[in-house]
Amino acid sequence: MLAAGCDGQQFVGGLPVGDPVPTNAQFVDFAIATLDTEVADHAAVTSVAMYRPDFRTPDGSTILFTRSGGMGDYVVALTLADDSVHAYFVMCGAGLDTKRCFIGPPSID
């Protein structure tokens, strides 16, 4: 479910998203494992979507960030059978370890 933000910014599950991207099993599997840890008795996952993140400063400027060794940084949105949406900013790849994934987002303070 999308909700409009300021200046055309869109949010899914509370995270700011840009363009949709094709799903990637590594990112999706990590997001589902995170959900399983956080909400052990959650409803079944019925659909998955991935997006480019769209973090912005208070004045609406886009925040650009880079890191080395990354396979990508995406928002993974999991829609559950109870119609709830859980979104995670998943970052996969760290240096030479392309299999390592972790949850973001980066600090914007």
Radius of gyration: 14 Å
| Strand coverage percent | 35-45%
Shape: globular
Number of strands: 7
Strand order across the largest sheet = 1-2-3-4-5-6-7
Uncertain ranges: 1-6
The pLDDT mean sits at 85
Largest sheet: 7 strands, antiparallel
Q: Which descriptors would you attach to this protein?
A:
109 residues, globular, seven-stranded antiparallel β-sheet
Question: Could you explain how this protein is built, in words?
Answer:
With 109 residues, this protein is mainly beta. The protein has one domain. It contains 1 helix and 7 strands, in the order E-E-E-H-E-E-E-E. Strands 1-2-3-4-5-6-7 form a 7-stranded antiparallel β-sheet.
